[in-house]
């Protein structure tokens, strides 16, 4: 790639996911339109946590939401030298995650020079009925 051609934000997000082993393991991908991103975790049998009721593993959904939040920070932040580092995460399990594709969106609620706050929600059938939500703070600058 020549120095004149810089990767787009969407390409930077995809590169971040490509360098993240867990994102690869769960088959995570993102659809980006401008500064709006929808993350997708396609259903795979290995994501089932309770085989009796065919429910997704809560840890898989939580990690998916954390990666969604980090990808959103990448999407809207210029010149990040390294991935956002989690300071703390709060996960709320609201409904059972079924054996089907899961979607997520994240919103940055506060962006500072050194940290940012992000909210994210995952849903399956209806966005208005999230299965899980996340509130996270990430270190984005300074040491």
Structural class: alpha+beta
CATH fold title: Thiol Ester Dehydrase, Chain A
Taking all Cα atoms into account, the compactness measure Rg is 15 Å
Question: Total number of helical segments?
Answer: 3
Name of the level-1 CATH class: Alpha Beta
Supply the key terms:
two-stranded antiparallel sheet, six-stranded antiparallel β-sheet, alpha+beta, 24% helix, single chain, Thioesterase family protein, 3 helices, 8 strands, Thiol Ester Dehydrase, Chain A, globular, HotDog_dom_sf, 143 residues, thiolester hydrolase activity
Topology (SSEs and partners):
Blueprint: H1 9-18, H2 21-25, E1 29-33, E2 36-41, E3 48-50, E4 55-56, H3 58-76, E5 85-93, E6 102-111, E7 115-123, E8 132-139
Antiparallel strand pairs: 1-2, 2-6, 3-4, 5-8, 6-7, 7-8
């Amino acid at each position: 790639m020549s120095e004149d051609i810089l990767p787009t934000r969407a390409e930077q997000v995809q590169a971040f996911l490509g360098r993240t082993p867990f994102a690869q393991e769960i088959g995570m991908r993102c659809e980006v339109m401008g500064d709006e991103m929808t993350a997708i975790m396609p259903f795979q049998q290995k994501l089932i946590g309770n085989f009796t009721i065919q429910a997704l593993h809560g840890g898989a959904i939580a990690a998916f939401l954390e990666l969604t939040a980090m990808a959103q920070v990448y999407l809207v932040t210029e010149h990040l030298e390294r991935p956002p580092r989690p300071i703390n995460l709060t996960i709320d399990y609201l409904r059972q995650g079924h054996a089907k594709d899961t979607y997520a969106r994240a919103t940055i609620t506060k962006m500072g020079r050194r940290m940012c706050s992000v909210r994210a929600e995952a849903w399956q059938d209806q966005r208005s009925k999230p299965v899980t939500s996340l509130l996270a703070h990430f270190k984005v600058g300074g040491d």
